[in-house]
Amino acid sequence: MNVKLRINLLASRIVEFIKYDYNHLKYPLVLASQGAILVLQKLNKHSLAFKVASNIYRTGWAKSEQLGLDVARYYFKAHPQLGREITQKFINELPPLKNTEKFFKQPEAMLNGIITVLKQPNEDEKGALIINYSYYFPLFLRFFDIERVAKSFNIILEPSWAGFCEENILAYTLIDAPIFLQVYEKRDKQFIDKLQSNIIPIEVGPSWFINHNNFVPPTSGERDIDLLMVAAWAKFKRHGAFFKAVASLVKSKPDLKIVLVGYPVDMTKEQILELAALQKVERNIEIFEWITPQEVSELQKRAKVNVLWSKFEGNNRAIIEGMFCGTPVIMRKGHNYGENYDFINPQTGYFADEETFKHVYEMTVSRASEMDPNLYVMQNRNCKVGTRIMGDAIKSYELSQGRPWHNDLDIKVNDLHGMAYLERDEDYYADSYMALKACILSPSNSSNS
Q1: What is the pLDDT of residue 447?
Q2: C-alpha dihedral sign at 74, 75, 76, 82
Q3: Of 97, 112, 336, 408, which has the most beta carbons under 10 Å away?
């Protein structure tokens, strides 16, 4: 028995219980948090007061959405000077991380990958750019003259995590320009709508922008992988809970083949396998680390079912990649805020929990010939459809402002490290990237931006 592992597993389970389970009963915790926020405001601890509200909003506890909205209105509508103080403190205190430190030295390295131009400005017609991943939003504000950029470009934000009552996003309410924001949770859409700011929500998300040319159904061969889980070695991905869910299935089918694909975050693959051993399913597992998208695609083509078992994250890409490969999905019931997503349907897959997983898996496999995940995403949820939705929203706004709209947005696709164009040669936007480079603030200005 690995005592340390069991203790860590229990600790993680307790944290998970507090954050995500029985949220409808947690209104007293929201009331207590509201009291703490009032005390912090009286003490002029506004950054901490907002941080408490942000964290409580993200939990999804009963009435937490109203608490988040009330506090956001207080700081970013009624008292914008305090909102500016909060966001400036947040931006200026951002530490360089492993994946961001090079941008502190060379902000221009964010261009064409993290900050991607989708439309060239032309005389009176504004261009458009998109910023990928939430943790780059404040870096854009820190290192670029945002007001100057906004004169030539409409700005689109593509958040990587659900729960939009946060500095990364609300800092943009203080910009004197429209900001277009991808929203993929109804709860966040309602929050942004009720805030009534300059932020304009667009109902798409990161998982819409997959390069479907790289993920296609198999033309031949048997699907010999029973279960595929593409998920980083991270606690929030809940591998341990997945192994618990699959244990009864393994007992009934001892030769069940499970393939895991990932990379280290706050866990290692050895720790993942230790979790599997606790449920006696380690012998059923084949594990791959840091493989290419092409290799992931080949595994998706061989899988009977693709699994997402986290309780909370952003807009997961791996399950949609699987759908392009014709692979149905089983998603953890209650994911994020418990929305019944339209892309989980009889054509594509089902919701399940630890108790129902075995039954849902067997039902999914038995219906394989009746399901067509590829058809669904090719018709309803892909980079071309997503780009059209974004373009229509921006076009509508621009025309309402009396500005012309002659050229549509170019199509971009996402990968693990940033964005690329689906078809356009990146040199086409060389002038736009040079113009954006000229908007980089001097070091003295960026440290006090």
Answers
A1: 55
A2: positive
A3: 336
The structure tokens listed for 85 are 């103080």
Helix segments in 351-426, DSSP class H: 357-366, 373-380, 383-400
pTM passes above 0.85:
yes
Give first-to-last CA distance, the chain, whole Å. 53
Element (H, E) at 102: helix 101-105
- d(CA 420, CA 116) in angstroms, rounded, equals 8
Long-range contacts of 294-300 (CB under 8 A, 24+ apart): 294/214, 296/230, 296/261, 296/321, 297/214, 297/215, 297/216, 297/321, 297/325, 299/225, 299/228, 299/230, 299/259, 299/261, 300/215, 300/228, 300/230, 300/324, 300/325, 300/327
Q: What is the mean pLDDT of residues 225-247?
A: 96
Task: Return d(Cα 137, Cα 133) in angstroms, integer.
Answer: 7
Confidence at residue 277, expressed as pLDDT on a 0 to 100 scale: 94
Q: Which two structure tokens, joined as six digits, stand for 93?
A: 């205190």
Which residues, in sequence order, are CB contacts of 153 under 8 Å at separation 6+?
Answer: 117, 119, 121, 126, 127, 128, 129, 432, 436
Query: Could you tell me if 193 and 222 are in contact, meaning their C-beta atoms sit under 8 angstroms apart?
Result: no
Measured distance CA(276)–CA(240) in Å, rounded: 7
d(CA 86, CA 76): 10
As a whole-number percent, the residues of the chain with pLDDT over 90 amount to 89
Structure tokens at 234: 């991270």
Beta strands at 115-119 and 127-132: parallel, antiparallel or unpaired: antiparallel
Question: What token pair was written down for 449?
Answer: 């931006």
- Which residues contact residue 305 at a Cβ distance below 8 angstroms, ignoring those fewer than 6 apart? 226, 227, 228, 327, 328, 329, 330, 349, 361, 364, 365
Distance CA(46)–CA(48), nearest Å, equals 5
Q: Which two tokens stand for residue 139?
A: 């870096």
Residue 144 DSSP code? B
Strands 329-332 and 306-308 turn out to be parallel
Strand order of the β-sheet with 329-332 is: 285-289, 258-262, 227-230, 306-308, 329-332, 349-352
Pairing state of beta strands 153-158 and 179-182? parallel
Distance separating alpha carbons of residues 191 and 204, to the nearest angstrom: 16
Do 230 and 261 contact (CB within 8 A), yes or no?
yes
Question: In the CATH scheme, what architecture does the domain 227-378 have?
Answer: 3-Layer(aba) Sandwich (3.40)
Quote the CA–CA distance of 361 and 48 in Å, as a whole number.
44
**pLDDT tens, 195-233?**
999 999 999 999 999 999 999 999 888 899 999 999 999
For 395, how many CA atoms within 13 A lie in the half-sphere containing its CB? 12
